[in-house]
Design goal:
By secondary structure, the protein is mainly alpha-helical. Helix content is 68%, strand content 5%. It has 15 helices and four strands. A four-stranded antiparallel sheet has the order 2-3-1-4. Helix 2 runs antiparallel to helix 5.
């Protein structure tokens, strides 16, 4: 993204606007459900534990269902999956609306309804976050991902503000009517676009295999680790402002639901400002400086809350805080999106959701516990100090632009990627060992080994369950790379997932070889000596 104008380029597409609006409604419903139910519970019962359990009921489905939902979203048509889940959401929200109309909203019923709504949102969230790239041309993908991350974080400030306003005006009935309306709007948006998802050239994985593949990709992708760790520290420290603001509004400012909605509305307005200035800020400042300033600004806002400044000052601070939160959270979200190719994008984003909601819920619990010994303002002051330390840590350990290319390679991963047709292979034969031999020039040993480390990570990300590099004792110039996959079908998937960056690594390895030599590729299937489990195709 090089200019403020390019930020909005995808919005010129009718299909992208439909996706953007639908996903924004989905994420907004997440926060309306979570914040609205907590506020409603505090009016139904004075027991603090019941109010705390609302956060658990809203977040637990993300923890339990988030990763499977990400795997499903990578395996099926995301549009059809979102439509099915949204239809179920509409039924649940309508049922909750009827229950509230009849006056049956008890604390236990509210917890059950909150968990059901949270389950639907958890099932849909990874597909909703990953779908942006399916409706824009490849050259607009970066801008589409940035707008998608803005949508997620904008809902984080709009949802609570909307919940506060609706509860103040219409109570539980208005809350669930809003959730039903959001579901209906998402269903309408799903009829206004068609998927352009890149079609895999091999059979899809099964659910368990897809889950393992997602875990393997994130584990062996260093580019994913940094934005995920940034998200955890940023969110867990910043969660204090979100969690303790209702208490501050009630105990310090004497505000009711409408006053609390006004405070959240200031956050939401700041988030809108963040969306508007994001392009210009990214154009003028380096990523490291933006992260430092936005995190330090939110730390300062949390400190102002801790000082219980006059209401006008607090509203202005929350406006700045909404802007800072939007910019910082969006940059971390985009940094992760940029590292994820299409075949694993929903699974990678499900990890983001898991970490984000765990940090938000866990952080809120920690700061809530601290209010006992040091009070609400003391807990906010401690959180401000932690946020300030996080901003300094971001300077020494900054986010980096993604190095992984999301473009599928057009050429084979390496020469000899497929065996000859001499034998008939069963797709599920395995395990399979791939062996590649290299004769390396002595002066290139160090460079070769450095590149080989990245090749090993690439192989593991794309499906290898084992990867090692060996060196021949009798012939020191000969290196042998071996990696194993569960089956021949997994090897085919491994090749299909090759990106331009993966191919470039292989080409760099080849430039280290002795003149006239080429990598020698061999494929070896496990031979079942008992003859009971697998019939070898080579026998």
């Amino acid at each position: 993204m090089t200019s403020a104008v390019s930020t909005w380029q995808p919005l010129r597409s009718r299909e992208f606007r439909a996706v953007f609006f639908g996903v924004l409604c989905t994420h907004t419903a997440t926060w309306v459900n979570q914040v609205g139910a907590a506020t409603l519970m505090s009016s139904l019962t004075p027991v603090p534990l019941m109010t705390a359990l609302v956060q658990t009921a809203a977040s637990l489905p993300v923890v339990l269902l988030g990763l499977p939902a990400g795997a499903i979203a990578d395996l099926v048509d995301r549009r059809l999956w979102m439509r099915a889940v949204q239809f179920g959401m509409l039924i649940v929200a309508s049922l909750a609306f009827i229950v509230s109309m009849l006056g049956g909203t008890s604390p236990v019923v509210l917890l059950v309804l909150t968990m059901l709504v949270g389950a639907g949102l958890a099932l849909q969230a990874p597909a909703a976050q990953a779908v942006y790239g399916e409706v824009v041309p490849r050259e607009e993908l970066t801008e589409a991902l940035a707008l998608g991350s803005m949508s997620f974080n904008l809902s984080r400030v709009l949802g609570p503000a909307l919940a506060g306003v609706v509860l103040g005006m219409a109570g539980a009935t208005g809350l669930y009517a809003t959730l039903a309306l959001c579901s209906a709007l998402v269903l309408v948006s799903l009829t206004r676009w068609r998927s352009r998802k890149e079609i895999s050239r091999v059979a899809p994985e099964r659910l368990w295999s897809a889950l393992r593949g997602g875990l393997r990709y994130v584990r062996h992708s260093p580019d994913c680790h940094r934005p995920l760790l940034h998200t955890f520290t940023y969110t867990s420290s910043g969660s204090a402002a979100w969690a303790l603001l209702p208490v501050l509004a009630r105990d310090v400012y004497g505000l009711g639901a409408q006053g609390y909605g006004l405070l959240l509305g200031s956050f939401g307005l700041g988030g809108l400002v963040g969306v508007l200035v994001m392009g210009r800020v990214r154009q003028r400042w380096p990523l490291q400086r933006i992260m430092f300033v936005s995190t330090a600004a939110f730390a300062a806002v949390t400190a102002i809350l801790a000082m219980a400044a006059p209401a006008g000052v607090t509203l202005a601070a929350l406006l700045i805080g909404g802007t800072a939160w939007m910019i910082g959270a969006t940059l971390m979200y985009t940094a992760l999106q940029d590292t994820l190719p299409g075949w694993v994008r929903a699974r990678g984003l499900s990890f983001y959701n898991l970490i984000y909601f765990t940090a938000m819920a866990g952080g809120a619990a920690v700061w809530g516990i601290l209010t006992g010994p040091i009070g609400t303002r003391g807990a906010l002051g401690a959180a401000a100090l932690c946020m300030g330390m996080v901003s300094c840590a971001f300077v020494s350990w900054p986010l980096r632009p993604a190095t992984a290319s999301l473009i599928r390679a057009t050429a084979p991963l390496y020469d000899g990627a497929t065996p000859s047709d001499r034998f008939a292979f069963e797709s599920r034969n395995g395990p399979l060992m791939v062996q590649i031999s290299y004769r390396v020039r002595p002066e290139c040993n160090s460079e070769f080994l450095q590149i080989a480390r990245d090749v090993g990570l690439s192989c593991r990300r794309n499906g290898a369950i084992f990867w090692r590099l060996f060196r021949e004792i009798e012939s020191p110039e000969l290196y042998v790379e071996r990696y194993m996959l569960d089956s021949w079908l997994d090897h085919t998937r491994h090749l299909d997932r090759t990106t331009a960056t993966d191919r470039e690594l292989r080409e760099r390895l080849a430039r280290c070889l002795i003149a006239g030599s080429e990598p020698l590729v061999r494929h070896q299937l496990v031979e079942d000596l008992a003859g009971a489990a697998v019939k070898s195709p080579l026998s």
